[in-house]
């Protein structure tokens, strides 16, 4: 009479430090406001990595009321790994396809990213050699993956890309990372789809993530649920 057997809701709140989260959020909100007001002086990018599998994900199916239909999942080998960022003030996305996430691929894509921002600066009528000294300060919000914090990589970024400042999330706080909403929206889009090859999946992701074909509802909230991220 008094109990119900329901799915448990996983949360990471017990592992989070409320004080660190509050301090981080307050500082981040200041950066975001400044970037919207003067994007030529400050840009905030949210950076992350994700993997997209060829395995068909069936989240819902038609069936008779009151009965749960059992569906055999179509499993295909193959996966596409993506690394990249989204700019806060105009929601511009730039994603790169990688073999796997490690310190080498992280440095290489940050370097590519920096070059593209420099080209954007030049296309606005500025002189390339002035970018390091006069270009916008670039804050990259990212998680605490060990390869993001490798000492030699951090030193190379500081020396070669002086405009960039890495701003690490508090532990267990992926919900602050706007890139998670991009991944979640892309995975929702490709759910129920069957791909003939890894290249087909790659091409679709390129259109979704880099050619603005993915429509994202930016007012959705990202939440931590165990080891996954959901948006509501």
Low-confidence stretches: none
CATH homologous superfamily title of the domain at 13-53 and 75-180: Ribonuclease H-like superfamily/Ribonuclease H
Q: Give the radius of gyration.
A: 20 Å
Structural class: alpha/beta
Can you give the mean pLDDT?
89
CATH class of the domain at 13-53 and 75-180: Alpha Beta
Q: Oligomeric status of the shown chains?
A: single chain
In CATH terms, what is the fold-level topology of the domain at 13-53 and 75-180? Nucleotidyltransferase, domain 5
Order of helices and strands: HEEEHHEHEHHEE
Strand order across the biggest sheet?
Answer: 3-2-1-4-5
How do the strands and helices of this protein lay out in sequence?
Blueprint lengths: L17 H20 L4 E12 L25 E9 L5 E6 L4 H21 L7 H4 L2 E6 L8 H10 L3 E5 L10 H12 L7 H13 L11 E4 L2 E4 L1
Parallel strand pairs: 1-4, 4-5
Antiparallel strand pairs: 1-2, 2-3, 6-7
What does this structure look like?
With 232 residues, this protein is an alpha/beta fold. It is 34% helix and 20% strand. It has helices spanning 18-37, 103-123, 131-134, 151-160, 179-190, 198-210; strands at residues 42-53, 79-87, 93-98, 137-142, 164-168, 222-225, 228-231. The strands form 2 sheets. It has a 5-stranded mixed beta sheet, sandwiched between helices. A hairpin with a 5-residue loop joins strand 2 (79-87) and strand 3. It starts with 17 loop residues before the first helix and ends with a strand.
């Amino acid at each position: 009479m008094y109990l119900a057997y329901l799915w448990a809701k996983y949360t990471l709140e017990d592992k989070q430090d409320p004080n660190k989260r509050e301090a981080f959020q307050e500082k981040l909100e200041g950066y975001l406001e400044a970037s919207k007001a003067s994007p030529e002086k400050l840009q905030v990018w949210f950076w992350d990595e994700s993997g997209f599998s060829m395995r068909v994900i069936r989240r819902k199916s038609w069936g008779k009321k009151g009965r749960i239909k059992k569906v055999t999942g179509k499993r295909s080998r193959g996966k596409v790994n993506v690394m990249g960022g989204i700019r806060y003030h105009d929601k511009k996305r730039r994603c790169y396809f990688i073999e796997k996430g490690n310190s080498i691929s992280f440095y290489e894509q940050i370097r590519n990213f920096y070059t593209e921002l420099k080209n954007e600066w030049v296309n606005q009528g500025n002189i390339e050699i002035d970018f390091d000294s006069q270009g916008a300060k670039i804050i990259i919000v990212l998680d605490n993956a060990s390869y993001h914090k490798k000492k030699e990589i951090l030193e190379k970024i500081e020396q070669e890309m002086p405009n960039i400042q890495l701003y690490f999330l508090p532990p267990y706080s992926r919900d602050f990372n706007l890139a998670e909403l991009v991944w979640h929206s892309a995975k929702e889009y490709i759910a129920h789809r069957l791909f003939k090859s890894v290249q087909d999946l790659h091409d679709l992701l390129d259109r979704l993530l880099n050619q603005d074909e993915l429509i994202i509802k930016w007012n959705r909230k990202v939440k931590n649920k165990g080891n996954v991220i959901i948006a509501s």
